[in-house]
Request: fold
Amino acid sequence: MQHKVFFKHLQTKPARAAVDFCNEGIVGLILSLTLLSPVAAQTTTLGVHTFSYHDRGYFNNVNTGIYLEHAGVTGGYYKNSLNKDSLYAGYTLKHALPTNPLFQSAAVMVGVVSGYRTRSYPHDYSLMAAASLKHDFNEQHGIRLSVLPTHRKSPANYVLHLSYEIKVK
Reply:
């Protein structure tokens, strides 16, 4: 009995915060270098995350954040549906749509995201995907409506998300 108590006092908590900060810092550095690239000013899209809608459950629907897309490479930050900070990186494929008054392009983004660790999902990173349609106000400004699938353990079936985009020239 005394032996068990001795070992119980020797246990320590793992230092997870330092490892998570390091990984997220690396993603932040990559995003910064992309923005500072000499070519980035000509072909970079700066996006602002705004609001989301979840079809079920009680989630944070104010998902503010920022992202960059340059030659398909996409990365950003947002306050996720669990009210935690998320960083993500991925690749976006875009396709112009036939002329119509509603949407001028469609896109699919796949990548990896942090910030969704829970008791029932004990992983630091998750796969992410989004399909979206973009409405252009003019050549530089537009809004993007995205549909994101959710994890099978989530009570929500899907998420609709709205973001604002500016082409940086």
